[in-house]
Each structure stands twice: as structure tokens, then as C-alpha cells.
């Protein structure tokens, strides 16, 4: 039997032979530097515009030089203050790492760093003004702060949309060499393929536990026993990702020594469905211990979520009241039957409740569900969806196209049966088909919208839907709820997966 430690891992280097090979120079990250420069220029334009607009708003074009009252014998004009603010703003954005190539265009970290850096800057100015008794125009700071923050976030969002479009075409992405077991490598390749916006394109693989594998999903596989310098030269990656738990710290250290300073080494722990906010690294005795916070569903977070649901659901009901009236009239004109449709669904902790919707089908739709599911061969799956459903009325098709039929669920939110965001509530028959993993969806309230609704809607498979729902359950927060609601509006307008 061959032990893992005895296998020819690519970073096991004997003597000086490995060092005689010329090191590979990372080249693909040149696009990162160009992108960072473009973002920097945009940031500068935004900061200058926000500061100049604020100055003009408060002092006009005719009062360019306006002095502040300082407890000294000299004054400082607001032009100087505005210039200093621009310089300081750009400096804190750089020091906070808001243009770090590893976070640009990826997740909320970029936005969070921008907000934190701007808060730090204006907070420092406010503290300085208080300590030195400087009489700054409060309106000047109160205008520059929100204006600049909103414009910076909008600018970064625009850049992100542009970057994601390029990455969907296979451009502006990090070239990745994966190292790990065959199973772990396949799982990571599949995960990265679903998130092209993350910017990782796998160009080569080194499988450490199966010498017979030559290709995985059209990605070439290099032998683990080969000299690693030759593998680097052939694959020419700018990022090397080690995945799996069979890699010792000494092997990973040796691997890092083989990389060019321009190349990145990433160690991917096998933590599936865990948000970055729950992961913390703590060095102990030279070992980077990874702490994973357990999800919390009680206390202040639950109270905040309920308050959020109540306020927004009540507000939406008031705003949408005229639309409710129009939809009710159209349903009555189009077909006989009630305006609203009530169906038993399973909610928090497996408790049943009646979910309300605008009726979008014929009145006896439920009686035909079983035969339609059997006809399409999906009666044994926990996702009762009928393709090209003949039970849908003409008006109902339009209501479903824009998810208008779901709006009465705001009443369920007010009642407390549902939340604005959460796993989709399912029928008792579907819940009976749950395995232990899927059953974890029931530890939080079901939602009107959720991750799977904004990630493909009805086009997603059951496996993908449950994966997204479980990720939400394990990592939910008010911030994520707001992001999902904003994405929901965009998903509703899109044509894919509408019905």
C-alpha cells in the first residue's frame, strides 16, 4: 500500500535539481495592474467631482476663497481644504486596500472597504475639528460624505459589471493551476465554473491520488511525479490553488518557494457553503488555525430580521395597493374563480401555513398536478414544477412572468409565516422527499425571494436550488437580505426562468 506521504507530490524537491530550471514569470496579471490604474483614475474623478460639487453648492463660484475660523492667527480657505480632502480621500482608499486585485469585482469586501475608509476619513476630520475647535461648515462635510460615497460605490459597481461581462467571455481572469485529489479538484472546477465572475479560469490540474486521470472537464492533467518547474512552465499560471486536506504544511511551504513573486498561492480548505464573514484565521504556534463561527438564528439578529420584514412589507403593501386592484380586475375578467389562491406550504420548523398568491391557473389546477408530473417523469423529485404548464391562464402567464402573482405573500410576511428573504416554501409532499441535508431549510422562515430565485429561478436543478438555499440558511444576515432583494428586482425583469 502506498502512503500519501510517499507519493511523488510535485512540490517534493530533491537536492538542487529543481532550482536549476529557470523560473516562470507570471504574465497574466498585467491586466490586473491596468484595471487597477483605470479604477484609480475613476476614483480620482469621482472624489474630485464630489468635492468640487460640494464646494460649489455651499460657496458658489464667486466665493472661491472662504476662510474657516481657527483658534489661531491665520485662516485656511476652503479651496485648500477641498484639495486636502481630495488627497486624503484618495490616500485612505489606497491604504484600505479598496483596489486590491484579489477583491476587485468579486464580493462585498470591495464595497465594505470603501465605506469603512470614507467613514474613517470623515470621522477623523470631525474629531479633529472638535479637538481644535475648528468651525467647519457642517453642511460641507454632511454633503461631501454621502455624495462621494454613493458615487464611489456606483463607479465601482459599473466597473464590476464591465469586468463580469469580460470574464464571461473568458477574458481578464486569473489562470489557475489546481493541485489536489481527483474528487476535490473536480468539485472546485465545478464550483468555479458556476462563478465566472470570480475570475478564476482553471488551465491545468495536478491530481495527487490518481495516476490514471489525464483530463478533467477538458482541463489537462499533469503527473504528480513530474518536476514542478516543468509543470509551471507548461501551464504558465498566475495562481496556484491547493485543495484538499492531505497537504502538509511543509509541502505547501516548499510549493510557495517554487513560485515567482508575481504568482499567488491559494490554499482552499474544504469548507462548503461557509461565507467569508464566518471564517477567521488565528495563528497559533506557527499554524494558521481557521475558526468557523456557527450560524445564529436567535437573539438580536432574529429581532432585526423581523423588524426589517415588518417595515418593508407594510411599506410595499401601501405602495402596491393600486396594482393589487388592477390585477384583481384582470383575473376576474380573464377566468372564473377567486382572485386569490391559497395553498398549504411548510414553514419554520415544519409547521404548515396557508400561502397566498394571485390566482394564475385554472380553478382545478391541483387536481391535474400528479398526472402532469408523472407524464414528465418528475413525480419522485422534491421540486414540483411542470414545464409548459397547460393549467396557466393567459393573464396568469403575464403575472408569473413578472412574479406579480407572488405579491400577496406580503400578507404572509406581515403575519409572520414568511420572511421577505429565505428558502422557498414547499408543499408537504415535497418536504416528505427531503433528505437530512435539505431538511435544514426549515430552521429559518421561508421567503418570498431567495438566493435560488435570483440565480436562475425555475431553470435551476433541485440540487443547485438546495445548495443555494443551504448557503443562505448558514450565512444569512440583514445585509445579504438587502442584496438579494435588489437582485430580485433585476431577476424579475429578466426573461430566464420566469415561469
Structure description:
- With 499 residues, this protein is of the alpha/beta class.
- It has 3 domains: 4-13 and 173-290, Nitrogenase molybdenum iron protein domain (Rossmann fold); 30-168, no CATH class; 300-493, no CATH class.
- Helices cover 45% and strands 13% of the residues.
- It contains 14 helices and 12 strands.
- It has helices at 30-59, 78-95, 109-132, 138-168, 182-194, 228-235, 249-257, 300-334, 369-376, 394-401, 409-415, 428-431, 462-475, 478-493; strands spanning 174-180, 200-207, 215-216, 219-222, 239-243, 264-268, 279-284, 287-292, 340-346, 352-358, 419-421, 447-449.
- The strands form 4 sheets. Strands 3-4-2-1-5-6 form a 6-stranded mixed beta sheet, sandwiched between helices. The protein has a two-stranded antiparallel sheet with strand order 7-8. A two-stranded antiparallel sheet has the order 9-10.
- A hairpin with a 5-residue loop joins strand 9 and strand 10 (352-358).
- Helix 1 (30-59) runs antiparallel to helix 2, helix 8 runs antiparallel to helix 10 and helix 8 (300-334) runs antiparallel to helix 11.
- The protein starts with 29 loop residues before the first helix and ends in a 6-residue tail after the last helix.
Amino acid at each position: 500500500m502506498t502512503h500519501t506521504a510517499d507519493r511523488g507530490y510535485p512540490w517534493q524537491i530533491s537536492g538542487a535539481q529543481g532550482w536549476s530550471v529557470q523560473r516562470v514569470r507570471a504574465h497574466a496579471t498585467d491586466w490586473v495592474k491596468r484595471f487597477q490604474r483605470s479604477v484609480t483614475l475613476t476614483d480620482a474623478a469621482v472624489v474630485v467631482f464630489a468635492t468640487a460639487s460640494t464646494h460649489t453648492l455651499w460657496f458658489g463660484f464667486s466665493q472661491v476663497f472662504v476662510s474657516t475660523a481657527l483658534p489661531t492667527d491665520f485662516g485656511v480657505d476652503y479651496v485648500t481644504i477641498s484639495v486636502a480632502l481630495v488627497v486624503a480621500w484618495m490616500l485612505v482608499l489606497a491604504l484600505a486596500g479598496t483596489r486590491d486585485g484579489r477583491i476587485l469585482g468579486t464580493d462585498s469586501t470591495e464595497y465594505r472597504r470603501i465605506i469603512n475608509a470614507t467613514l474613517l476619513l470623515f470621522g477623523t476630520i470631525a474629531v479633529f475639528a472638535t479637538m481644535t475647535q475648528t468651525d467647519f461648515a457642517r453642511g460641507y462635510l454632511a454633503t461631501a460624505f454621502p455624495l462621494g460615497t454613493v458615487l464611489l460605490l456606483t463607479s465601482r459597481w459599473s466597473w464590476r459589471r464591465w469586468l463580469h461581462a469580460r470574464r464571461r467571455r473568458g477574458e481578464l481572469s486569473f489562470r489557475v493551476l489546481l493541485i489536489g485529489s481527483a474528487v476535490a479538484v473536480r468539485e472546485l472546477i465545478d464550483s468555479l465554473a458556476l462563478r465566472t465572475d470570480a475570475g478564476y479560469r482553471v488551465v491545468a490540474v495536478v491530481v495527487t491520488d490518481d495516476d490514471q486521470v489525464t483530463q478533467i472537464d477538458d482541463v489537462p492533467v499533469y503527473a504528480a511525479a513530474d518536476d514542478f518547474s516543468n509543470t509551471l512552465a507548461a501551464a504558465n499560471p498566475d495562481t496556484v490553488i491547493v485543495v484538499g486536506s492531505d497537504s502538509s504544511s511543509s509541502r505547501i511551504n516548499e510549493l510557495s518557494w517554487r513560485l515567482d513573486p508575481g504568482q499567488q498561492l491559494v490554499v482552499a480548505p474544504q469548507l462548503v457553503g461557509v461565507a467569508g464573514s464566518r471564517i477567521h484565521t488565528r495563528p497559533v504556534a506557527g499554524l494558521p488555525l481557521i475558526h468557523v463561527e456557527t450560524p445564529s438564528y436567535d437573539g438580536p439578529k432574529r429581532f432585526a430580521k423581523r423588524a426589517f420584514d415588518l417595515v418593508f412589507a407594510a411599506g410595499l403593501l401601501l405602495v402596491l395597493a393600486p396594482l393589487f386592484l388592477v390585477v384583481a380586475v384582470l383575473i376576474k375578467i380573464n377566468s372564473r374563480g377567486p382572485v386569490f389562491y391559497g395553498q398549504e406550504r411548510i414553514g419554520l420548523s415544519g409547521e404548515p401555513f396557508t400561502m397566498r398568491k394571485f390566482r394564475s391557473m385554472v380553478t382545478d389546477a391541483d387536481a391535474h398536478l400528479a398526472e402532469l408530473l408523472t407524464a414528465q417523469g418528475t413525480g419522485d423529485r422534491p421540486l414540483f414544477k411542470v414545464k409548459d404548464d397547460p393549467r396557466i391562464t393567459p393573464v396568469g402567464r403575464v403575472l408569473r412572468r413578472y412574479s406579480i402573482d407572488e405579491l400577496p405573500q406580503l400578507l404572509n410576511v406581515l403575519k409572520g409565516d414568511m420572511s421577505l428573504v429565505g428558502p422557498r416554501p414547499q408543499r408537504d409532499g415535497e418536504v416528505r422527499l427531503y433528505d437530512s441535508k435539505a431538511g435544514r431549510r426549515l430552521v429559518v422562515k421561508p421567503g418570498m425571494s431567495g438566493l435560488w430565485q435570483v440565480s436562475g429561478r425555475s431553470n435551476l436543478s433541485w440540487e443547485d436550488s438546495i445548495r443555494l438555499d443551504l448557503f443562505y440558511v448558514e450565512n444569512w444576515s440583514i445585509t445579504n437580505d438587502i442584496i438579494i432583494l435588489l437582485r430580485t428586482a433585476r431577476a424579475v425583469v429578466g426573461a430566464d426562468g420566469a415561469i
